[in-house]
Amino acid sequence: MLNRIKNIRRICAIVVLAFAAGFMISKFVTVHETQEEIAALQKELTDLESVTSQKVFELEQSVDLAKIEEEATTRLGMQRPERYQTIYVDVKQDDVTEMTAGEVEGASKRISRMFKNIGSYIVKLFSIE
After folding, report:
1. Going by C-beta distance under 8 Å and a sequence separation of 6 or more, which residues neighbour residue 129?
2. Is the entire prediction scored with pTM above 0.85?
3. Would you say 79 and 73 are in contact if contact means Cβ atoms under 8 Å apart?
4. pLDDT 10s digits, 71-120
5. How far apart are alpha carbons 3 and 6 in whole angstroms?
6. Relative to the CA of 6, which of 24, 68, 77, 105 has its CA 20 to 30 Å away?
7. What is the CA 87 to chain-centroid distance, rounded?
C-alpha cells in the first residue's frame, strides 16, 4: 500500500512537471513568434522610411520655382507686385499667444484621459502578451 502511494505521488509529480514544461514551451514559442513579428515589422518600417525619404527628395527636386512662376504668369495671368503695391506693417505687440495646458485641455479632458489610461492599464493587465 505504501509503495502504491509513492508511485501515485511520482506519477502526479511527473504529470505536473510535464504540464509545466508544456506551458513554458508554449510561452517560449509565443515570445519567439512575437520577436520574429517585431523584427519583420521593424524591417518593414525601415524600408518604408527609406521610401518616404526618397519620395521627399524627389518631391523637393521636382519643385521648380521658375516653372511655378512661369505657370502663374502665363496660365493664371498673375504678375509680381510693384514696389508701390507692397505695404509693410509694424506690429508693436508680440505675435505670440501664451496658453497653459490647463486652459487648453480643461478638467474634463484630464478626467477623460485618466479613465482611458485606467482602461488601457486594465486591458494590458489581463492580456496574454
Report:
1. 30, 34
2. no
3. yes
4. 889 998 998 888 888 888 877 776 677 766 666 666 677 777 788 888 88
5. 5
6. 24
7. 45
Q: How far apart are CA 93 and CA 108, in angstroms?
A: 33
Chain centroid to Cα 109, Å, comes to 22
Say if residues 14 and 109 touch (Cβ distance below 8 Å): no
**Model confidence at 63: pLDDT above 60:** yes
Q: What is the distance between the alpha carbons of residues 23 and 19, in angstroms, rounded to a whole number?
A: 6
- Cell (9 digits) for 112: 477623460
Query: What is the radius of gyration, based on Cα positions, of the chain?
Result: 34
| Cell reading at 1 | 500500500
pLDDT per residue as tens digits for the range 65-85: 888 888 889 998 998 888 888
Q: What separation in angstroms does the CA of 23 have from each of 17, 28, 54, 90?
A: 10, 9, 46, 74
What is the amino acid identity at position 122? I
